[in-house]
Design goal:
GO terms for molecular function: RNA binding; RNA methyltransferase activity. The chain is of the alpha/beta class. The protein has nine helices and ten strands. It has two domains: 73 residues, Ribosomal protein L30/S12 (60s Ribosomal Protein L30, Chain: A, 2-Layer Sandwich), CATH 3.30.1330.30; 160 residues, 3-Layer(aba) Sandwich (Alpha/beta knot), CATH 3.40.1280. The strands form two sheets. A six-stranded parallel β-sheet has the order 7-6-5-9-8-10. Strands 1-4-2-3 form a four-stranded mixed β-sheet.
């Protein structure tokens, strides 16, 4: 698998890669045990239309290729995800006064990142900013959890998140950081375009990152209940932002 191609697995991720056609799918692996499965047969049909090489293999081989991941009987080789430059994403956003972005600060849990990307795409966020260091990248595990949503959202990689946030502010974006000590979202009326910053599990956003936010916001929670994890908190805040920004006249 050292051919500089991405490896993705799972019915929804592989299906979305074939449907979106944003990246070239070069090879499809299908487990013999999935013969006749409706969704898998649809994947095979799409692959044939795009002249993708299809290999039928046994389940043990597929387990080995995916390192025993939950592959659901399918795996594909695809061209690597095209990471955007911040300047390119800003150019595409120009003029969209209701544009919503997301940035993650030192998030290392692939489950959380994948879930956040999925929610962001579903809730109308156009772009996600990922720092190059101390943040999990778009791994096969992240892609699987995101259920193919990565194909429908811009991924921007930056060397310095604080500098990127400053650049966004200069371009008219408002930056909101999520932290338990922030202003409740029930009392927040977001300005836009806007970017939401979500921190790592257990640590939140870094102090330096918080200094570059226009406002720190939080989710009101009842006492005696453990705090929400990063992906759950991000989904709630993203929905609140979408409802107040994108749906208002």
């Amino acid at each position: 698998m050292n051919d500089n191609l991405d490896m993705i697995y799972g019915i929804h991720p592989v299906m979305e890669a074939l449907r979106s056609k944003k990246r070239n799918v070069t090879q499809l692996y299908v487990s013999d045990s999935k013969a006749g499965h409706r969704a898998v047969e649809e994947i095979i049909r799409l692959a044939k239309r795009q002249n993708v090489k299809i290999d039928r293999i046994d389940n043990k081989t597929l387990d080995r290729l995916t390192r025993n991941a939950n592959h659901q009987g399918v795996m594909a080789k695809v061209q690597p995800i095209k990471l955007m430059k911040l300047s390119t994403a800003l150019y595409e956003s120009d003029g969209n006064k209701k544009d919503l972005w997301l940035a993650v600060d030192e998030m290392t849990d692939p489950q959380n990142l994948g879930a956040i990307i999925r929610s962001a795409a579903c809730l109308g966020f156009s772009t996600i900013i990922l720092p190059q260091r101390r943040t999990v990248g778009i791994t096969p595990a992240v892609y699987k959890v995101a259920c193919g949503a990565i194909e429908n959202i811009n991924i921007v990689e930056v060397a310095n998140l604080s500098a990127a946030l400053n650049d966004l502010k200069e371009e008219g974006f408002w930056v909101y950081g999520a932290d338990m000590d922030g202003q409740p979202i029930t009392q927040t009326d977001y300005a836009s375009p806007a970017v939401l910053v979500i921190g790592s599990e257990g640590f939140g956003i870094r102090e330096k990152t918080a200094e570059n936010c226009d406002q720190i916001i939080s989710i009101p929670q009842r006492g005696g209940v453990e705090s929400l994890n990063a992906s759950a908190a991000a989904s709630i805040i993203m929905y609140d932002m979408m409802a107040k920004v994108q749906l208002k006249k």
